[in-house]
Design a protein that fits this description.
Length: 120
Amino acid sequence: MAKNLQVAVLLDYYGDLLTEKQRDFISLYYDEDLSLSEIAENEGITRQGVRDSIKRAETLLFEMEEKLKLAKRFEEIEEKLKLISDSAAEISKINMQTLLSKEISELTVKIRTAVNEISQ
């Protein structure tokens, strides 16, 4: 995963744990694609001050993920939900081709519905 995307994802999970300035600077830098100089000029501080704040914030975000692993766990859950949904679809397909069991059809619909509800 590219660093920009990693920071954006981690910001979604842990952004509230940063200072307001750190959140603002990272958002302006990564989301708004402003340069360090542009942010510094807008904020009335040095370019180095902006860079230091962003680097500290990035370090905190990566440290929090290393300890809590929320983003990684969410990604794993999404993968498992897709596997469950795909498996239910395959069971349903096989059922339609062979057994035509009403119970199996109903259960696969329940599974796929539950996966969709969890995913949203």
